[in-house]
Amino acid sequence: EADIYQTPRYLVIGTGKKITLECSQTMGHDKMYWYQQDPGMELHLIHYSYGVNSTEKGDLSSESTVSRIRTEHFPLTLESARPSHTSQYLCASSELTGGVQETQYFGPGTRLLVL
Amino acid sequence: AQKITQTQPGMFVQEKEAVTLDCTYDTSDQSYGLFWYKQPSSGEMIFLIYQGSYDEQNATEGRYSLNFQKARKSANLVISASQLGDSAMYFCAFSGSYQLTFGKGTKLSVIP
Fold first, then answer.
1. With an 8 Å Cβ cutoff, is B8 touching chain A?
2. Partner-chain contact A104 B46, CB within 8 Å
3. Nearest Cβ partner of A109 from B44, B100, B105?
4. Which of A52, A91, B9, B69 is the most buried (most CB within 10 A)?
5. What's the pLDDT tens digit per position in A76-87?
6. Closest to B64 measured CA to CA, from B34, B43, B41, B44
7. What tens digit of pLDDT does each residue of B48-90 get?
8. Do the beta carbons of residue B49 and residue B61 sit within 8 Å?
């Protein structure tokens, strides 16, 4: 089971501000992910990484960017926050299960409100 | 693209009773995995149980079991002896490789 941390847990910020959502895991997992989730809705993958210096965009288009300079750290940045970015952001990392599939373990999430 | 369907937006169950949450999927992949996650009101996603497509036996984890019917492409979650703390959103997810595709979720409410 992964130990995965996200900060801040809650963030209220004004339009136009730059924000960085932090995500760290201590299990040495290579693969990490960012999801966006509106209240009561399903999760949508916005970014993922296979390892250091690897980042890819997910199925849902997002104006955010990510970086992966260290294995344990996968921050997400919004250069200019807008009200449409209001959502919950969930970070995950994964490990191989049953020799074939990756099981993803999630952090506690960051709830972002842009005014 | 894989599709995953949870047809029950909300479910109620009496405390100590068993409940089944439905999940169906559509894929042409031979190797895949099915997952269930619990999301309490606090927002975190908690991994509950995993079933591989080649696993012959249904997965079980404590009070959770996965009723896997491969021919029908269903992977229903069974929670036995429901507790008040089981009240939460439950998401079924499909994995063909490394990416998870989530269903829309079922909100379970346990009644005292």
1. no
2. no
3. B44
4. A91
5. 999 999 999 999
6. B34
7. 999 999 998 999 999 999 999 999 999 999 999 999 999 999 9
8. yes
